[in-house]
Write a structure and sequence with these properties.
Layout: H1 6-31, H2 39-44, H3 47-62, H4 68-95, H5 101-108, H6 111-137, H7 142-156, H8 163-187
């Protein structure tokens, strides 16, 4: 059974990143009432984090590992945060959307509110750490990484920032992720992920005896 080569996997991850950017733009347009809220827009909202996780993983495998232990910890923190945010998006878009305000307020006053806040803080810390690790590699372009980090701030603090700031954060995050995805796709065929051990040209000592 044949296995996909790294170039193919990087391109799949890049396509996932582009998909994440599109979903983030849909989320921003929905919140700004540019497009109507529907069952479809609510259902696809959590896909942004799921697809972004594929891009983040590819960037780590291609470049982040060169940041050593810090790069590994940053990747794991960001990956865990993105996974947690999938649950947050499901709750916000598919549960809260069908509940009255007083019920939502009661849920947020309990352990659910603590969990949502923890996931948001973790996303902010994970994103900033991951961006720092990518910057240390000096191979990933700086501008989209900065956009990724800047966009994550209002998204993480969504409960404390104005709606306009959240919408702008979503758009900024989408631009950063989309830019990184397109760059990765173009770079995919030139990424060296695994080093092949050299084959000795000389016979081993004692091989002729």
């Amino acid at each position: 059974m044949s296995h996909p080569v790294p170039t193919t996997l990087y391109r799949i991850a890049a396509a996932a990143g582009c998909g994440s950017a599109v979903v983030l733009l849909i989320n921003a347009a929905k919140r700004a009432e540019v497009i109507p809220t529907s069952a479809l827009t609510q259902l696809v909202a959590p896909l942004a984090q799921i697809l972004a996780l594929a891009l983040v993983t590819a960037l780590y495998l291609a470049f982040g590992r060169r940041a050593g232990t810090f790069g590994l910890v940053a990747f794991l923190l960001n990956a865990f945060a993105l996974s947690a945010l999938v649950g947050v998006e499901f709750v916000i878009n598919l549960v809260f959307n069908d509940l009255p305000d007083h019920t939502i307020d009661a849920l947020l006053d309990g352990t659910l509110g603590i969990a949502l806040t923890a996931a948001s803080i973790l996303f902010l810390l994970g994103t900033l750490a991951f961006v720092a690790a990518m910057l240390r590699s000096r191979e990933v372009p700086t501008t989209p990484l900065v956009l990724y980090a800047v966009g994550a701030v209002p998204v993480s603090l969504r409960a404390f920032v104005p709606e306009a700031a959240l919408d702008l954060g979503l758009v900024t995050l989408a631009v950063g992720i989309g830019w990184l995805a397109i760059w990765l796709f173009g770079r995919s065929s030139r990424i060296v992920t695994w080093a092949h051990p050299a084959v000795a040209d000389e016979p081993l000592v004692g091989a002729n005896h």
